[in-house]
Amino acid sequence: MVPKIHKRGTRTIGLLYYLYGPGKAEEHVDPHLVASWDHNAPDPGRDPKATYQLLQQLLDQPLALLDERQRAKKHVWHLSVRNGPTDRILTDAEWGDVARCMVAAAGIDDPEQGAGCRWVAVRHADDHIHIVATLMREDGYKPDLDHDAARVQAQARALEVELGLRRLNKGDGTGAKRPTSAERHKAERQGRERTAREELRETVRQAVAGAAGEVEFFDRLAAAGLLIRKRVAPSGDLLGYKVALPDDRNKDGDPVFYPGARLAPDLSLPRIRERWTGESASVPETVNDASPTAASGSAAPAAARRRSADAAWQALLVLEIADDSVAAAHISATGEVLDALAASSAAHTRRELREAAWAFERATRSHVRAARGHDRALRQAARDLVHGGPALGRGEDGATTAMAIDMLFFLVTAAAHWHARKNHAQQAAAAHQAAEHLRAAYQTAAAPPLAAHHRRGRLLGRTVLRRQALLLQTVLPENAERILAEPGWHALAATLADAENAGHSPAELLTDAARQRELDSAESLSDVLVWRLRRSADLPADAPLPARKRTSTQTSARAPRREQGQENRLGR
After folding, report:
1. What is the pLDDT of residues 439-497, one digit of tens each?
2. pLDDT on residue 13
3. DSSP letter string over 474-519?
4. Phi, psi of 232 (to 5 degrees)
5. pLDDT at residue 185 in the model
6. 456-465, long-range: CB < 8 A, 24+ apart
7. Which residues of the chain register pLDDT less than 50?
8. d(Cα 450, Cα 192) in Å, to the nearest integer?
9. Which residue among 97, 217, 235, 553 sits deepest, i.e. has the most Cβ atoms within 10 Å of its Cβ?
10. What is the pLDDT, as a whole number, of residue 427?
11. Could you give phi then psi for residue 79, rounded to 5 degrees?
12. Torsion 305-318-351-440 (CA) sign
């Protein structure tokens, strides 16, 4: 249940016309009263004899009885209360009880305190009501509305329990603005999965991910097909920007522009510029075509994903020991990596990665101000992903995608724990939700390469498997039995053999991998160790293709053709 106090106004009649009218997009259905200060208050929605003017006169009657100097300048108080899409539909009687609880909590009409200002609650949709109140009483009393927003929020939490609704976490004012009901209805009519505001927020975040400066940021927005308006000072300095979808128009046919700050608090131009604070001067505004991150071919996406896994591992270590401001910077930059990975992902993992980035967006903001510059490695990883290009989803691309998702899962889980320690309830919940989407994306991406490693492990000799099982029992005695029983054990055995053949010490690699945090939250320890070992030993993430052996029949069949070719060259 989400209560929202709107700006105070001066025209009761104007607000009533809107609440009882069709809405901005014909979204209002059956407007009617569900509660009021007076059981006999007229209802223009259900009573054909009642008028808006009559209801307005009754609401504003206390003002007419007072001297003009006693009247409040802005006497119209407006509160909307909305349930979530998964909540059950409340009856009119239940919404009436909600309205009475809300005006009492705010101090508008508390019978015990005698603070009876006039108010009405209008319902014009299944999921919400609007409460309109006059902030004056006949005797000149004005209600104390200090901290009214906090009080109605607390009342909403209590009502969620009482009515069996989804319980929301307490907000801290750092969340992005929710789409309005008109925006949601418009998206439904147009067949959009998300509202224009939400689509723009996702596109702008992806344009920010790893961008080195304003030139690249605005170039990415333009490349994404957005319409852009820049606000420029008389001096020529850029002050802000607005963006719009080309096909999102108002009733006059003009594009609907949204300022960055209206999309999310951290997408205003000044807040975006903070991301470039402390960036290395060697990071160019434009990409050098000769750089590894701009290389063509399938190696570029795979290399970028491997580097993002490395950066995520380093950030995981920092997150546990860093100051709050440094940790906040790393969490914010983790959001950039997720945005970049989602934008460049293959089709079979794209949806879950988009949902992970979308959910984690809420976890990137809190009242802890990020100390920018310390997040340079993660921002560079996001930049590498963007300029590495889309992954093909198979071979080394797919395997390194699984490697990156695996490490990002643990980083996002660590971010959830950090937020929980700071009592950031909404951010912690968002990070946990993102982790679940990453888990689903990982299962899709990891299945083919792990199956290939598993097949290779099954072909290892008994002596090799026995030696590696003994190594596991020596290095990880507390987890060895579990790992040996997992389906992924043979993939781990193949990886240990690869590391040994590459000149590494499997014992040292295994010891180092086991020290890495968040191992206990893994569903499969063997899978996690596979990716950590292959990353730290710089082994190919995908299993190499087995060499094709020629049969004796193929060899004898090719010999005459070779001889015949030689005869032709000699002129025979």
Report:
1. 999 999 999 999 999 999 999 999 999 999 999 999 999 889 999 999 999 999 999 99
2. 93
3. HH-TTTHHHHHHSTTHHHHHHHHHHHHHTT--HHHHHHHHHHSTTG
4. -115, 135
5. 84
6. 456/490, 456/491, 456/494, 456/543, 457/489, 457/490, 457/491, 457/492, 457/493, 457/494, 457/497, 458/490, 460/490, 460/493, 460/494, 460/497, 464/493, 464/497, 465/493
7. 280-298, 550-572
8. 36
9. 217
10. 94
11. -130, 130
12. positive
Burial class (CB in 10 A: 0-12, 13-18, 19+), 554: exposed
The structure tokens listed for 110 are 């508390």
pLDDT at 291: 39
Torsion on CA atoms 450, 456, 461, 464, rounded to nearest 10: -50
Dihedral pair phi/psi, residue 476, rounded to 5°: -125, 65
Query: Please, which residues bridge with residue 129 across strands?
Result: 81, 123
Task: Determine whether 551 is exposed, middle or buried from the number of CB atoms within 10 Å of its CB (0-12, 13-18, 19+).
Answer: exposed
Amino acid 115: pLDDT: 60
Taking the C-alpha atoms of residue 457 and residue 402, their distance in angstroms, rounded to an integer, is: 19
For the chain, the residue count is: 572
For residue 359, the one-letter residue type is A
Does residue 428 contact residue 420 with C-beta atoms inside 8 Å? yes
Q: How far apart are CA 234 and CA 408, in angstroms?
A: 45
- CB-neighbour burial class of residue 205 (10 A; exposed 0-12, middle 13-18, buried 19+): buried
375 to each of 316, 328, 335, 398, how far by Cα in Å? Answer: 12, 9, 11, 26
CB atoms within 10 A of CB 88: 12
* Distance (Å, whole) CA 276 – CA 212: 7
Question: Which class for 112: exposed (0-12), middle (13-18), buried (19 or more C-beta within 10 A)?
Answer: exposed
**Which residue, chain included where needed, has tokens 């989407």?**
437
Domains and CATH numbers, the chain: 2-163 (3.30.930), 192-284 (no CATH), 449-536 (no CATH)
Secondary structure (3-state) at 166: coil
pLDDT value of position 556: 47
- HSE at residue 441, side-chain half, CA atoms within 13 A, is 33
Indicate the burial class of 296 (C-beta count within 10 angstroms; 0-12, 13-18, 19 or more).
exposed
The conformational region for residue 291 under phi > 0 = left, psi -120 to 50 = alpha, else beta, is: beta
Residue 379 · residue 275 · CB < 8 Å: yes
Query: Rounded CA gap, 24 and 11, in Å?
Result: 18
Q: Which residues contact 478 (CB under 8 A, 6 or more apart)?
A: none
Backbone phi, then psi, for 417, in 5-degree steps?
-65, -40
Which amino acid, residue 469?
A
pLDDT, residue 295, reads 38
Q: In terms of DSSP bridges, do strands 128-134 and 227-232 run parallel, antiparallel, or are they unpaired? A: unpaired
425 burial level (CB within 10 Å; 0-12, 13-18, 19+): middle
Alpha carbon distance, N-terminus to C-terminus of the chain: 92
Query: In 3D, which of 322, 337, 294, 81 has the Cα closest to residue 205?
Result: 337
- What gap in Å lies between CA 212 and CA 315, rounded to an integer? 20
